[in-house]
Design a protein that fits this description.
Blueprint: H1 2-24, E1 30-34, H2 41-57, E2 61-65, H3 72-79, E3 87-91, H4 94-101, H5 109-112, E4 113-122, E5 126-129, H6 138-147, E6 152-156, H7 162-174, E7 178-182, H8 186-195, E8 200-203, H9 205-213, E9 218-222, E10 251-257, H10 262-276, H11 279-287, E11 290-292, H12 297-317
Parallel strand pairs: 1-2, 1-3, 6-7
Antiparallel strand pairs: 3-10, 4-10, 4-11, 5-8, 5-9
Length: 321
């Protein structure tokens, strides 16, 4: 009887522990790892959310940029952290693409992490080309690429990121030869197009906006289902006859190390969802080219599993895995 009572007591206390943990969390500063260079869209959105979240949770949140290896260095730092909700990851599709393209990347999205929420989803990417090229439309650029002996080159913020994959999918679909030139971040990749060192790049529309308006690059197509509000005169790939080149774009997601208590993850997720409904946060996200989200950890997990399946099929087609 004593043994039974002891077991019941342990189970009772364990059942109480999770709500208590959630009630007392957080009681110290939180570290938010952004696995990319400072100044990019993923960094600015992370910092904006961190400012609001630290007020809502009554704690400080320190944003750390751990760039390198297409986001893998920062991801591994979070993987190795204690599963207590005090080290979190703010990342992009590169987080998942890495594991599909490189099985030895050093982490497993589904075994080493647990999802919190998705901040937002992108509406599509814009394809820009070197302004010195005679081509002014997508079809003219494709014709130019096919006539060029060694094809054309393109830039992206690293091997295996979403922009790299989108560019490879485009090249495969239209049948042109390309050479990928990776950079450490979007600014360097875009600067190469402006300088004429690179022929084209597929990128977030908000970053490209001022460069297109000033004539430093030419925008020739948009990957979304409908035209971008940033580029209302730029046709979609679908409009140009490439119906299977609809690429919704990026997403921004938050993760914790595996085995982080569900109650902590839900506390963060529900607080973030409320923040995302605030008018200034909505405006900021829209300005950066995102539709707000805030889905639950379970809904995010289902999305990731679906994306994992899709990416495996896509990357096999373009021979990245």
């Amino acid at each position: 009887m004593k043994l039974v009572n002891g077991i019941l007591a342990v189970l009772f206390l364990t059942g109480l522990q999770a709500p208590i943990v959630a009630q007392t969390y957080p009681n110290k500063p939180i570290r938010l790892i952004v696995p990319f260079e400072a100044g990019g869209t993923s960094d600015t959105t992370a910092r904006s959310m961190a400012v609001k979240l630290e007020k809502a949770l009554n704690t400080s949140i320190v944003v750390e940029n751990r760039a390198g290896a297409n986001g893998a260095i920062g991801a591994i730092a979070v993987k190795n952290a204690a599963p207590d909700g005090y080290v979190l990851l703010h990342t992009t599709p590169a987080f998942l693409i890495n594991t599909v393209a490189n099985k030895s990347i050093g982490y497993d999205v589904f075994k080493d992490f647990t999802p919190i929420t998705m901040m937002g989803t992108g509406t599509g990417y814009v394809m820009v080309i070197n302004p010195a090229l005679k081509a002014n439309t997508l079809n003219e650029f494709i014709a130019y690429a096919k006539e060029k002996k060694n094809g054309v080159n393109f830039s992206s913020p690293g091997v295996g990121n979403a922009l790299h994959v989108a560019s490879e999918v485009f090249a495969n679909r239209v049948g042109i030869e390309t050479l990928h030139i990776p950079f450490k971040g979007t600014p360097g990749a875009l600067a190469a197009v402006v300088a004429g060192d690179v022929d084209f790049m597929i990128m977030p529309p908000t970053i490209a906006h001022s460069y297109v308006n000033s004539g430093r690059v030419k925008a020739v197509a948009f990957t979304g289902q409908s035209r971008s509000p940033d580029f209302p005169t730029v046709p979609t790939f679908k409009e140009l006859g490439l119906n299977d080149l609809i690429i919704a774009g990026t997403w921004l997601g938050w993760f914790a190390p595996a085995n982080t208590p569900k109650e902590i993850r839900y506390k963060i997720q529900t607080t973030m969802r409320q923040i995302l409904q605030e008018s200034d946060m909505k405006s900021l996200m829209q300005k950066d080219g995102f539709e707000i989200d805030g889905r639950s950890p379970e809904e995010f997990d289902l999305f990731l599993k679906s994306e994992n399946k899709r990416l495996n099929e896509v990357l096999k087609t373009i021979k990245l895995n």
